[in-house]
Model the fold of this input.
Amino acid sequence: WSKHARAITMTAKMGGGNPNDNPRLRLAIDKAKADNMPKDTIEKAIKKGTGELEGETYEDVLYEGYGPAGIAVMCRAMTDNRNRTSGEIRKIFERSGGSLGSPNCVAFQFTSKGVIVVPRESVSEDRMMEIALDAGADDVSSSEHIHEITCRPEVFHDVKQRIEQAGVAVQSADIAMLAGSTISLDLTAARKVKRLIDALEEQDDVDAVYSNSDIPDEVVAALSKEA
Done:
């Protein structure tokens, strides 16, 4: 909940406290509600962002670097102490066999996209394609277990709403940074990359982590057995 509160406060500060006029705030609230964050806690976080209540001052920081096997990593954090967070992020990269890079060293490889995931059993591939593309999505990719819908960030909420209105359950929905090309990893490299990403995600100030790694299904299965 503390990460959700930070995200809500930060997005309210940047774009105002009305979720109807602030898509990033609406997304932050949706994530908080999905994790059963109480309504009054959400409202308090909004008021801290708009200045109606006193609270910490957070800033949105994007860290970029390289992980094992040369993968590109982007890490978004919300912090009230940039120096502390930067030092901790740098140590995590170094301990995991990677290195923290300079601004824009890997950002050019990523594009901001809305990503909506729907369980495969909820709807047929053809029907999912019809709903999503009619709503303004760019693409639908189907696998054994899920349909993954991608769209431009500005139509993200409209596409998500249209899918839900069609009676299709949404498993997850977020605005993410997607890599234009990926690096396929074997088990040894995937193990090291997973260690890095897990450590970054566990850091208190980190909100999201993205990479251009591609882990084949058989490697994912092998990793799951090790967990």
